Amino acid sequence: MFQQVRMRIALLALSLVLIIYTISSIAVYAIVHLYVIHGIDQHLHTIAERVANEYDATGNVEITGNLLPHGTYLFFAASGTLFVKTTSSLQPVLVNLIHNAPPGEHYVDLTADGIHYRVFYALSNLGKQGTDILMVAQDDRVELSVLNNLKTVIFLVGLAGMLISTLAGFFLANRVLRPIRAAWQRQLEFVADASHEMRTPLAVIQSNLNIAMGHTDESILDNLEWLNNAHSETRRLSKLVTDLLTLARSDSEKLPLQIQTLSIEEVFDKVTDLYSSIVEMNGIRYRSEIAASAAQQYFSGDADRIQQLLLILLDNARKFTPAGGEIALIAERSRNHLLIQIKDTGRGIAPEDLPRVFDRFFTGDASRTRETSNETGVSGTGLGLSIAKWIVEAHKGKISITSEGLGLGTTVTIELPIASPRSSSE
Ligand SMILES: Nc1ncnc2c1ncn2[C@@H]1O[C@H](COP(=O)(O)OP(=O)(O)OP(=O)(O)O)[C@@H](O)[C@H]1O
Ligand SMILES: [Mg+2]
């Protein structure tokens, strides 16, 4: 598919260059042609005027060498005076023109003996003593060869330009398509992973319901175990679909943020209200702390998304911290940024897993993850940190995760630009 698109882009670029080049070449050639021919015509006309003036003044024209520059020829007949200075091959052609040309003044192109001439002629029957004839011819081979050379140059430059633009087209198309191809590849993997992740809960729901439905003689209470299994998998499936939808919308940039100025105290209070009791119910201590440097500070953000971000991170901390551990939500200021940290004393992350935790569907060592997450009833799908990363980046911030190693706790750090107090957006 990309091969075809690349070909199309290259062809499109080529046709565009070709059209522009052809139009401009025709324009340039036409202008130069007009200019050159006009120059010759003016030259012929000037000579014709001078000859006519000489004749008018003296009644007996005397054509000097000055009057006829090299390569210019004359056939002049008026009031009995005949002056002819042509080549032997040109003369019969001019005489032929006298017989066939209409009266009046005209410019024509003639060829005699392979030589090209531009000719100005004036025929008039009004002269008292027969036909007045004035013909000035100019050998214009030099000018025509200049025009021919111009044509060749235009053609050769066009050919080289076409070659270069074809190569450039392919090169540029390749460059333009590279990130698209990578995104497409990621999208394919995403869809494949998503379908795979959906298959598991669906299979579990199906098999548990099958078992329950097979026990027609038993009560619902007797089948509670199977129904519970099915129910917990529907919760997992529902979370998965919500997360997938969030990521799909964030990818297509269809998730606009409702940006407002947020106070760090208000954000922390809300999250603490929502989550501290859940953490404490799991036997984990919870601490929220705003350093003096960060107190009364504001940042621009979407309140719901920022809350979602902190809940994702607190949920991870809770999931991976055993009872007796501690989770801390800390804010401090570093230059013109707010640093928000979620620290836990839980199981930590293996150094080899650290670079991959923000990847979609990454859940680390499956056996460990499942073991710990089972405490909560709903096992992770590995999308939480991907969503967290999107939220932070949509707020022009940075997110990083560190852990000294397995069993040594984890720290997630978010960096958000500080905003001036409320007045700016409220
Ligand atoms: N605080 C933490 N302590 C230890 N491991 C963590 C922590 N936070 C994340 N991880 C590791 O990173 C993985 C990815 O986290 P993420 O939040 O993306 O997925 P999840 O929690 O497994 O699933 P979900 O958030 O979609 O329910 C986790 O499965 C876990 O292995
Ligand atoms: Mg998570």
Automatic annotation (TrEMBL):
SUPFAM superfamilies, per database record: ATPase domain of HSP90 chaperone/DNA topoisomerase II/histidine kinase (SSF55874), Homodimeric domain of signal transducing histidine kinase (SSF47384)
Gene3D superfamilies hit by this protein: 1.10.287.130, Histidine kinase-like ATPase, C-terminal domain (3.30.565.10)
Keywords: ATP-binding, Kinase, Membrane, Nucleotide-binding, Phosphoprotein, Transferase, Transmembrane, Transmembrane helix, Two-component regulatory system
Domain annotation Histidine kinase: ranges: 193-420
Membrane topology note: Multi-pass membrane protein
Gene Ontology CC: one annotated term: plasma membrane
Transmembrane regions: 12-36, 153-173
Record-given protein name: histidine kinase
Organism: Alicyclobacillus tolerans
